[in-house]
Amino acid sequence: MHKQEPHLSRMKIALEEARDAALREEVPIGAVLVHRNSGDVVARAGNRTIELHDPTAHAEIQVIRDVCGVVGAQRIPEYDLYVTLEPCPMCAAAISFARIGTVYFGAHDPKSGGITSDVDLYSRSQIHHKPQIFGGILEEECGSILKAFFQAKRLSL
Amino acid sequence: MHKQEPHLSRMKIALEEARDAALREEVPIGAVLVHRNSGDVVARAGNRTIELHDPTAHAEIQVIRDVCGVVGAQRIPEYDLYVTLEPCPMCAAAISFARIGTVYFGAHDPKSGGITSDVDLYSRSQIHHKPQIFGGILEEECGSILKAFFQAKRLSL
Predict the structure, then answer these.
(1) What is the pLDDT of residues A57-95, one digit of tens each?
(2) Catalytic site residue B78?
(3) CA distance A127 to A117
(4) Taking 90 as the threshold, does the pLDDT of residue B2 lie above it?
């Protein structure tokens, strides 16, 4: 349990971002980027595709762009990503381009994800950098926010 | 030949952007977005991942973000994309999220593309919007800029 602690506390920050996204009527997914050596959370975001009028403004893309901008590089191998849902194919590719070291995700998404779905991006030979992947961190909590959001959407249609 | 003319002239603008990208030492890929009914070229860009410190600043992502920002929406189904190289998996997914109607691309990229490679994104059930695809427009010209760029890189290593 002690070893898991930093991962849980970082995922909880990502969950806060997911909850804030839901309050903005955005798909409730949150992400944080952590500097591997210092352990500092250097960026945090929830989805903002509606607010920003930007279909690429997924939580993962936003924290990657934020940190790349601050660091002044398009590759940030010193950082690890925490995200409440398995990244989609767009984000999985961006994570590889950014050379993120490790991806810790919450809920699995075998239907629409980029990793455990049949897209299976990181098994493809075209992917030059394959991050380490740990899925299922606070899986139930991460998944239930999404389920509740989409159930409420259907009820209000 | 007459029917091809608008496609060729739009791809030539994308090629100009690719050439400008090469002058900036960026991977020489260019893209334009065209309003389908008016035929107006509303955005044009070349890769700027190095300059902008942004691994997501591929030509396609930039023109999509530009037009979405101007239109004020995350979906722009009234627009078609022209790009000198088959989109990568990240861009192919973003194109689908943006609901782009038709993608016209120049050179095929069966090794690293998102469409004709084994990623084959638009054949996957998770993709809710599959744009129409026309590849091979000015293929030789679009491909030769990339080949020359990477050959020169190798020579200067």
Answers:
(1) 999 999 999 999 999 999 999 999 999 999 999 999 999
(2) no
(3) 16
(4) no
- Nearest residue on chain A to B97, alpha-carbon basis: A55
For every residue of chain A, DSSP letters joined together read -TTTHHHHHHHHHHHHHHHHHHHTTS---EEEEEETTT--EEEEEE--TTTTT-TT--HHHHHHHHHHHHHTSS--TTEEEEEEEPPPHHHHHHHHHTT-SEEEEEE--TTT-SSSSTT-GGGSTT-S---EEE--TTHHHHHHHHHHHHHHHHHH-
Catalytic pick among A60, A86, A139, A141: A60
- CB-based contact B65:A56 (threshold 8 Å): yes
ipTM for the predicted complex comes to: 0.95
Please provide the average confidence, as pLDDT, over all residues in chain A. Answer: 96
The answer for A36, left when phi > 0, alpha when psi is -120 to 50, beta otherwise, is alpha
**Which of B29, B74, B81, B116 to probe by mutation at the A interface, max A CB count within 10 Å?**
B74
